[in-house]
Amino acid sequence: VRFALVKCAALVYQYDSEFATTLFDTLLKRDLCIISASKAFWLMNRNIEKYCPFLMEACKSPSQELAKEAAHLLCIIAIRTANQTALKFLCSKDWPNNIIDEICSVAIEAFENVTLRQIGQQILEYFIFNSDDNSLRLDGLFWNNCLDLHRDKDLILLVLKKQSNSDIIYSFVRFLKNQNVSEITEFAEVVYGLIQNTVKSYRLREIE
Rounded to 5 degrees, what angle do the CA atoms 53, 59, 61 make? Predict the structure, then answer.
């Protein structure tokens, strides 16, 4: 019922924004799960600064689904509005892996927009530099056709050197197939090193 009321609030907003906002705020204060309702994000977009604290609180929820949804929405807001409070909150190495993966996935999507990619890259670089292992889900970076070998060389090298798991290696090699041969040669040494590391890791697993 409460989720349905959120949709009603969105419909009423254009006629009576004050009533619609009051209704939505009341529902949100009673249950943070309301952020997952249809049109909830649309309503929150009317006043980003006001609703960021609710999303931050939801990010810490013991419910994994709610926390993941909140992190997703908050990251969208942080990237679209360059909200420094939200960015600082999200860029923390204390998040569990599922939340970090969700934040990184939104940051990767930002690369599809020229005006948003800088903040998306800022988020990715934070987690790459602060990750204790190579388990970050960054392979999607090579699937959206938004990277340029020359322009994004430093980022690509950073990802390959710090996060060289099998998914990333596979995605990168696939990505290289569509690039100019002259540009690929710049990555020859890195690719060779990745292959060596992969073979070494495979042999170690066989020994174990």
Answer: 110
Mean pLDDT of the chain: 86
pLDDT score, position 173: 81
What whole-number distance in Å separates Cα of residue 154 and Cα of residue 32?
A: 40
Per residue in 23-60, pLDDT (tens digit) is 999 999 999 999 999 899 999 999 988 999 999 999 99
Cα of first residue to Cα of last residue in the chain, in angstroms, is: 55
Say if pTM beats, i.e. exceeds, 0.90: no
**Residue 8 structure tokens:** 């009603």
Single-letter residue type at 139:
D
Contacts of 32 (CB under 8 A, 6+ apart): 54, 57, 58, 61, 66, 70
- CA 6 to CA 205: how far, in whole Å? 52
Residue 19's pLDDT band, with cuts at 50, 70 and 90, is very high
Alpha helix (H) residue ranges in the chain: 2-13, 17-30, 40-44, 48-59, 64-81, 84-90, 97-109, 117-130, 153-162, 166-176, 181-184, 188-207
Contact, 40 vs 25, CB < 8 A?
A: no
